[in-house]
Protein backbone atom coordinates (compact mmCIF):
# COMPACT_ATOMS: atom_id res chain seq x y z
CA UNK A 1 0.00 0.00 0.00
CA UNK A 2 2.83 2.41 0.81
CA UNK A 3 4.31 1.78 -2.65
CA UNK A 4 1.01 2.78 -4.28
CA UNK A 5 0.75 5.93 -2.16
CA UNK A 6 4.27 6.95 -3.21
CA UNK A 7 3.55 6.18 -6.87
CA UNK A 8 0.37 8.30 -6.86
CA UNK A 9 2.09 11.03 -4.84
CA UNK A 10 5.01 11.32 -7.25
CA UNK A 11 2.60 11.38 -10.19
CA UNK A 12 0.55 14.07 -8.44
CA UNK A 13 3.64 16.16 -7.76
CA UNK A 14 4.71 15.99 -11.40
CA UNK A 15 1.20 16.63 -12.69
CA UNK A 16 0.67 19.70 -10.54
CA UNK A 17 4.05 21.18 -11.52
CA UNK A 18 3.34 20.52 -15.19
CA UNK A 19 -0.13 22.08 -14.78
CA UNK A 20 1.34 25.26 -13.30
CA UNK A 21 3.95 25.57 -16.05
CA UNK A 22 1.40 24.84 -18.80
CA UNK A 23 -1.19 27.31 -17.51
CA UNK A 24 1.39 30.08 -17.10
CA UNK A 25 2.77 29.47 -20.59
CA UNK A 26 -0.62 29.38 -22.34
CA UNK A 27 -1.98 32.40 -20.43
CA UNK A 28 1.03 34.44 -21.57
CA UNK A 29 0.23 33.56 -25.18
CA UNK A 30 -3.56 34.09 -24.84
CA UNK A 31 -4.20 36.73 -22.14
CA UNK A 32 -8.00 36.85 -22.44
CA UNK A 33 -10.99 36.76 -20.13
CA UNK A 34 -11.38 33.02 -20.58
CA UNK A 35 -8.76 30.95 -18.77
CA UNK A 36 -7.18 29.43 -21.88
CA UNK A 37 -4.45 27.82 -19.77
CA UNK A 38 -7.08 25.93 -17.79
CA UNK A 39 -8.91 25.03 -20.99
CA UNK A 40 -5.65 23.73 -22.47
CA UNK A 41 -4.79 21.48 -19.52
CA UNK A 42 -8.35 20.18 -19.33
CA UNK A 43 -8.34 19.27 -23.02
CA UNK A 44 -4.85 17.78 -22.91
CA UNK A 45 -5.61 15.89 -19.69
CA UNK A 46 -8.88 14.59 -21.13
CA UNK A 47 -7.10 13.42 -24.26
CA UNK A 48 -4.36 11.76 -22.22
CA UNK A 49 -6.81 9.95 -19.95
CA UNK A 50 -8.70 8.72 -23.00
CA UNK A 51 -5.43 7.41 -24.45
CA UNK A 52 -4.41 5.76 -21.22
CA UNK A 53 -7.72 4.04 -20.51
CA UNK A 54 -8.06 2.88 -24.10
CA UNK A 55 -4.50 1.56 -24.12
CA UNK A 56 -5.07 -0.17 -20.79
CA UNK A 57 -8.24 -1.85 -22.11
CA UNK A 58 -6.66 -2.98 -25.35
CA UNK A 59 -3.02 -3.63 -24.46
CA UNK A 60 -2.99 -3.71 -20.68
CA UNK A 61 -1.12 -1.59 -18.16
CA UNK A 62 0.11 -2.50 -14.73
CA UNK A 63 -1.87 -1.15 -11.81
CA UNK A 64 1.16 0.91 -10.75
CA UNK A 65 1.42 2.65 -14.12
CA UNK A 66 -2.34 3.27 -14.34
CA UNK A 67 -2.37 4.79 -10.86
CA UNK A 68 0.73 6.87 -11.53
CA UNK A 69 -0.70 8.29 -14.76
CA UNK A 70 -4.45 8.52 -14.11
CA UNK A 71 -4.80 9.10 -10.38
CA UNK A 72 -1.49 10.84 -9.76
CA UNK A 73 -0.32 12.79 -12.79
CA UNK A 74 -3.61 13.45 -14.59
CA UNK A 75 -5.56 13.90 -11.36
CA UNK A 76 -3.22 16.74 -10.43
CA UNK A 77 -2.77 18.03 -13.98
CA UNK A 78 -6.42 18.57 -14.87
CA UNK A 79 -8.01 21.49 -13.14
CA UNK A 80 -11.73 21.14 -12.65
CA UNK A 81 -11.51 23.03 -9.37
CA UNK A 82 -9.70 25.88 -11.12
CA UNK A 83 -12.26 25.72 -13.92
CA UNK A 84 -15.05 26.07 -11.35
CA UNK A 85 -13.34 28.99 -9.62
CA UNK A 86 -12.72 30.82 -12.90
CA UNK A 87 -16.39 30.38 -13.81
CA UNK A 88 -17.49 31.74 -10.45
CA UNK A 89 -15.29 34.80 -10.98
CA UNK A 90 -16.77 35.35 -14.46
CA UNK A 91 -20.27 35.01 -13.00
CA UNK A 92 -19.61 37.39 -10.11
CA UNK A 93 -18.11 39.96 -12.50
CA UNK A 94 -21.12 39.76 -14.80
CA UNK A 95 -19.12 38.35 -17.72
CA UNK A 96 -21.95 36.07 -18.79
CA UNK A 97 -20.80 35.69 -22.39
CA UNK A 98 -17.31 34.55 -21.32
CA UNK A 99 -18.86 32.34 -18.64
CA UNK A 100 -20.97 30.62 -21.27
CA UNK A 101 -18.01 30.25 -23.67
CA UNK A 102 -15.73 28.90 -20.97
CA UNK A 103 -18.24 26.26 -19.84
CA UNK A 104 -19.15 25.21 -23.38
CA UNK A 105 -15.54 25.07 -24.60
CA UNK A 106 -14.29 23.10 -21.59
CA UNK A 107 -17.12 20.57 -21.52
CA UNK A 108 -17.45 19.94 -25.27
CA UNK A 109 -13.75 20.06 -26.15
CA UNK A 110 -12.77 17.85 -23.21
CA UNK A 111 -15.44 15.29 -24.08
CA UNK A 112 -14.18 15.28 -27.65
CA UNK A 113 -10.58 14.97 -26.43
CA UNK A 114 -11.42 11.94 -24.25
CA UNK A 115 -13.26 10.34 -27.16
CA UNK A 116 -10.39 11.06 -29.56
CA UNK A 117 -7.83 9.70 -27.14
CA UNK A 118 -9.96 6.62 -26.60
CA UNK A 119 -10.49 5.79 -30.29
CA UNK A 120 -6.79 5.95 -31.11
CA UNK A 121 -6.21 2.48 -29.66
CA UNK A 122 -9.43 0.88 -30.88
What does this structure look like?
By secondary structure, the protein is an all-alpha fold. The protein has one domain. Helix content is 84%, strand content 0%. The protein is built from 5 helices and no strands. The chain has helices spanning 2-29, 36-58, 63-77, 80-92, 96-119. Helix 4 packs antiparallel against helix 5. The longest helix is centred in the first third of the chain and has 28 residues, at 2-29. The protein is globular and about 45 Å long. The mean pLDDT is 91.
Structure keywords:
122 residues, mainly alpha, 5 helices, 0% strand, globular
The major pleated sheet works out as: none
Helicity, as a percent range? over 70%
Mean of all residue-level pLDDT scores: 91
Q: Give the structural class.
A: mainly alpha
Number of domains: 1
Order of helices and strands: HHHHH
- Rg, rounded, reads 16 Å
Relative strand content: under 5%
Characterize the overall form: globular
Summarize the structure.
With 122 residues, this protein is mainly α. The chain has one domain.
Topology:
Elements: H1 2-29, H2 36-58, H3 63-77, H4 80-92, H5 96-119
Amino acid sequence: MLNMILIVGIGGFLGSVFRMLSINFINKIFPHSIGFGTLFVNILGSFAIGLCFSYAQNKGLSLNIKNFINTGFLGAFTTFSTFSYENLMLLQNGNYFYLFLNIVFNVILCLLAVWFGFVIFK
